[in-house]
Amino acid sequence: MATDTTRQTSSGQASSGPAGPAEIKAIPARHPWRWVATGVVLVLVAMLVNSLLTNPRYRWEIVARYLFDGTVLHGLLLTLEFTAIAMAIGIALGVVLAVMRGSPNRVLAWTSGAYIWFFRGTPLLVQLIFWFNLSALYPVIGVGVPFGPTFATLDANVLITPFIAGVLGLALNEGAYMAEIVRAGIMSIPKGQIEAASSLGMSRAMTMRKIILPQAMRVIIPPTGNNTIAMLKTSSLISMLAIPELLYSVQIIYGRNFQTIPLLIVASIWYLLATSILTALQTRIERRFSSGSDAGASYGSRLRRNLFSRRQTVSGEAR
Predict the structure, then answer these.
(1) Which residues contact 252 (CB under 8 A, 6 or more apart)?
(2) What letters, b where the CB count within 10 A reaches 16 and e where it falls short, cover 292-314?
(3) N or C: which end of the chain has fewer CB within 10 A?
(4) Contact 165, 128 (CB under 8 A)
(5) What backbone phi and psi angles, to 5 degrees, belong to 178?
């Protein structure tokens, strides 16, 4: 037997009708430790800013004087040149090594694996010094047939200049890391696509060039961008070869005026600016290759899409 309940309205009058669900009052969870952590961070940031502005030993006037100095700018350009050349060679070499690593030919696969093992297993600084002193091991570099006649000989001291030694050290080391990045991108593609391409009569090289690598770029691009940024900073190691890149340029200056900290701040500012630009370019390239997925969309576009869908939902409920 259905019964009606008597409810008290806001005007104090009783009304009869079926009892509705009890009103639930949502109480947001409290997070006091978040506020504590925020306060600690703000205090530390304020202390840092105060130190930067009030400590006269930073010598900001020296920083401003040498920020656009010709020697510093020339070193910056040389750093960017080393980064571009080493990454171009490293990427090309990494693609070749990754394809060799996945080859059914055991000699090619083992050769690629040995190369990656060696160049990833030894420090980059050791490799740079080794290439710089290659003439101590091979005073004369010959070109010819193994165990046969030599067609041409080159003086290693003339051939391996500090610039060439720096490029070889950076590029060959980067090729080993890029090989693993490219291999990971290739392995992310389902094997069914390779089998489908083979059934259509496509060669392995054409399948790799037309089907596998274009799809693998979505996996390859982010770590490649990270490696490019790392290469920009790692190129400072070639200062050990007396190459006047950015770090060595400021070392030359503070070796004369003994303003070590201000000149290191100058180098840090240019490194930060260059890495920020590379980060922005990396983000744009990632969006370009991830245009078909929501992950590649910018925050603004995702926000506008969410607001538009929310507006449509509200309009539908109003009808």
Answers:
(1) 71, 244
(2) eeeeeeeeeeeeeeeeeeeeeee
(3) N
(4) yes
(5) -65, -30
